[in-house]
Amino acid sequence: MCRRDHIGIGIPQHPVPGSPDAAPLSKRTAAVDIIICVHNALQSVVVCLQSVIDHTSTPYRLIIVNDGSDESTSTFLRAFASHYECVLIVNSEALGYTKAANIAMASSRGDYALFLNSDTIVSARWLDKLLECAESDNRIGLVGPLSNAAAYQSVPFTKDDTGRWIENRLPGLVSPGQADEIIESLSERRFPRVPFLNGFSLLATRAVISTVGRFNQNAFPYGYGEEIDYCLRARNAGFELAVADHLYVFHARSASYGPDKRIALSAAARPQLDEIHGAAVLAAARESLYRNPDLALIRRRFAEALLMRDVG
Q1: Rg of the Cα trace of the chain?
Q2: Which CATH code is given to the segment(s) 32-311?
Q3: What ranges do the domains of the chain cover?
Q4: I need a labelling partner for 36 at 20 to 30 A (CA). Which of 25, 89, 98, 108 fits?
Q5: Mean pLDDT within 226-230
Q6: Residue 115's beta-bridge partner residues?
């Protein structure tokens, strides 16, 4: 179990922006394995881990996979795991995100497994809000939050005029924690059902893992596409997928692999997904996400709230 204090292991400190922890939503008893796969990008990793330590209440266990990172990142992770008593799995060479995530999944024993990218920033009560969504309906098997950069879960905008995904930079005076507070204040907790979720922050129930198994590392060895495949497999098995529309998790995106490789991997995943699940199925799923009225509502409200802050 990870202790909650400030990371101080021989590198510069990176305070995480955000608001103080508020009162808990409810007493949580479910155990969660938080899985973070790391490949370089040390500065993003430090900020991510600091935010997890600062804003996550027990019970939880942190499982970190060092997937062939450079020496500076590896040194930090060894020190971190020793200091915080976390599980550290080391791949001597980079196997790719999907294989790394599957290795961690095999070590997971909690009621839930949460796959969190190492370039994210979480805020107060984030895990409790994900679980509130998951436990609102026993048919839900997978849950994801809103974000600045998470495809159809992005707020306030998803794509630009050219069809490229938008990263939605926050206004200068709005921190990730404050953005989360705004989202929570605007949300009606509709927990919209969707055909698939973005993998940057993906909560899976033990029932899903037991039924669906692991990510498809043969078709998607380096990530990008593996979460969509997993979500569609979960839906086919009878589980529902929901967005925690009262939670915002900041996502830097492409910290480990860079934007060019991300675009290449995404492009390579699309024909694989079409072959496995059918192009028509994928097209219908994307259209459903694009036109989801509950997601459109929270995006519009968030855009208006940010505009009011800029005007003010």
Answers
A1: 18
A2: 3.90.550.10
A3: 32-311
A4: 25
A5: 97
A6: 35, 202
